What does this fold into?
Amino acid sequence: MDHMGMTNALYTGEDRTAKCGTCTGFTLKMIAVVTMLIDHTAATILERALTCPSAGYITTAEAYNRWLIVYQIMRGIGRMAFPLYCFLLVEGFVHTRNVKKYLGRMAVFALISEIPFDMAFNRSFFDMSYNSVFLTLFLGLAVITLVHKVDDKLQIQDRSLLHRYLKCIAIVAVILAGMILAELLHTDYSAAGVAAIAIMYVLRSRRMTAFASGVVTLGLLSGTIEFLALFMLFPIWFYNGKRGHSAKYFFYAFYPVHLFLLSVICWFMGLGI
It folds into this structure.
């Protein structure tokens, strides 16, 4: 059950997506992990091979053009991962029994992931100019936590137009503050990522609408080809709202571990750390 209850005035209506579907949260997480791995393999190993001809892996124009197409396809597949993680973050928040512990886990793994992220994408051991998507997810989680608190505090009997305006202003202010902070911290997807999470949360009573709106928001604000993530509407349609197999810490640990391993592979191939 939603730990916030279905009486929340911001979010009315019942989700009409497939309650008896066969797709669980575990299935969605596995899809997110696989698409992310494909994306990051291209963004690390393949990108370095393409941009470093002296390494000797791609030596002709024909080979370059062929591998460039492979690179673009892999990065396109990878566009499906982050919006799915945003959706799962909102689902986790809705169903968690302890929001503080959830925030704590996200904060810890955001810190743990920073060095592997810098090794993989900044080619250094520590670089604050571009920070991991785990930090974006943490900020998004913090924003929707505050949005819920604001909405809960303003659940009073006064239904006047002024009251509604004040509530909307307060919620928008929280979301904008999170977006600004993401920009200041130079996180992956930055403000667009936080906005997508907030949109998915506000519209969560309609999963399909929430996900599609989050993807469109992400694409419009980031200027990237995130619209390919709309293909993920198919598994979300069959999502039954159940957790499925429990492998919580595998999914947390996978992010820093796979980035570290990709960096090690690059190092062995002579493509830097």
In short: Residues 25-51 form the longest helix (27 residues).
